Amino acid sequence: MGAGKYTKGWTGWLIVLVVAALVVTAVVLGLRKKAHHSDMGPVPGPPGAITQKYADALSVALQFFQVQKSGKLVNNKIAWRGDSALSDGSEAGLDLSKGMFDAGDHIKFGLPMAFTATVMSWTILEYGDQMSAVNQLDAALDSLKWITDYLINAHPSDSVLYIQVGDPDLDHQCWQRPEEMTEKRPLIQINKKNPGTEVAAETAAAMAAASLVFKSINSSYSDLLLQHAQKLFTFADDHKVSYTISFPKLQKFYNSTGFGDELLWAASWLYHATGDQSYLSYVTVQNGQSYADWGRPTWFSWDDKRSGTQVLLSRLNLFGAKESTNAENKGLQMYRRTSEAIMCGLLPDSPTSTSSRTDGGLLWIDQWNALQHPVAASFLAVLYSDYMLTSRTPSFSCNGVIFSSSDLRKFAMSQADYILGNNPMGISYLVGYGDKYPQQVHHRGASIPASANTGCKGFQWLKSPNPNPNVAVGALVGGPFKNDSFIDNRNNSMQAEPTTYNSAVLVGLLSGLITTSSVVRSFN
């Protein structure tokens, strides 16, 4: 009897164990089916093995900022460029000769120029060690300071900011080298009477971010930038009016879709630069619900900073924000969740992936300046991937399908490789990289021989069927149509015109892809 009792109990437990094992096996198999790539390697340390094609491409891309420089050039390495716009700002008693032309023309637009500086600063802060490993950090710092020097001079008093130099309508009536400009270059300023929240806030973001870059290089310059940033943010926040409302004529150039994103973006950078909790409260408790569009993925650009802010603030959630309140932490969690929603939209195998892609695999959002959004999105993907690696975050879920940091990196590489020539046209959209790239870039200076004296009316060079006599090295052109085609024609500004702000996010993307490396947990 006793033996039978224990035998029956042992048999029962055996059945239970077998059933439990089957359940566990089924769960594991189910998770494996749902997981895409949940592998996670060790946290990388300092820059390791260099991926040469990305290092070479970065070296090329950074040269475009030298091409775009205005003012009295120092150590000029672009043979066909010279001094230009030396009297910019003189009518207001200011030196606004520096800065950069935004694209193929010769206007200095404050909003995209400041965005260029913010992104350049972010790249240097995250990937400066990688840039240094391939001897490109000094070039990036030089380009950044050329812009921030201009921004400092453009902010002569607390509530005055000069946001534009040159008349776009007049400029577009000319086709000439910048060295030959003789037409009037009027100034536009925002002030209390005619505010411009977006430009003031974006400039504040640029100066706050740059103050972190220069903190260990030139502390007095860093302090000056931070002072300007704080004053500009106060001005932007106290006078909430879109600059295209104050100046309606500017709507046909860089029209703004709203200023809430720039206010969040600026406050986020000011929190990183100062550690002042009031800025953290501003972006989480006070204004996150109103301006951030939590849960709604958006595209990062010179106009819309929401997704950039989501990712920037996600680093605080992933790495831990010091002394943050429960309410602030909840806000940071919402930024992180929205960042993950953005990432889910980018990955081609995600159930919430955007379907708007070319057959060649490029994200495709807009036919005008088509590369703008895929490059910027890929930059954010690399950043978020490295945040995950550094914080030892193994994965995130897209409607139940699991993805890892390596999936984000592979996506970003696919977009970078498309740009560098792995596309149906077999063309590099980065001018000067590879054997085949656009020859008729829509760019005044590149299209006219340096020896020509055209005056304003050099339109024969716009219409010329020949390749540009000067190579705008580093220019990232607008990019392909939805069918992956590209028309290399100087008059085709939709596809053939480069911009500094596209170059800025490309530099960020390439810097992140040079090698896999951990990022700093704090910018201070």
TrEMBL record:
Keywords: Carbohydrate metabolism, Cellulose degradation, Glycosidase, Hydrolase, Membrane, Polysaccharide degradation, Transmembrane, Transmembrane helix. Pfam families: Glyco_hydro_9. One of its GO terms (biological process) is cellulose catabolic process. GO terms for molecular function: cellulase activity. It catalyses: Endohydrolysis of (1->4)-beta-D-glucosidic linkages in cellulose, lichenin and cereal beta-D-glucans. The keyword Membrane applies. Residues 54-510 form the Glycoside hydrolase family domain. SUPFAM superfamilies: Six-hairpin glycosidases. The chain crosses the membrane at residues 12-31. The active site is at H442. It comes from the Eukaryota. The keyword Membrane applies. Its EC number is 3.2.1.4. Belongs to the glycosyl hydrolase 9 (cellulase E) family. PANTHER family: ENDO-1,4-BETA-GLUCANASE (PTHR22298). This is Endoglucanase. It comes from Dendrobium thyrsiflorum (Pinecone-like raceme dendrobium).
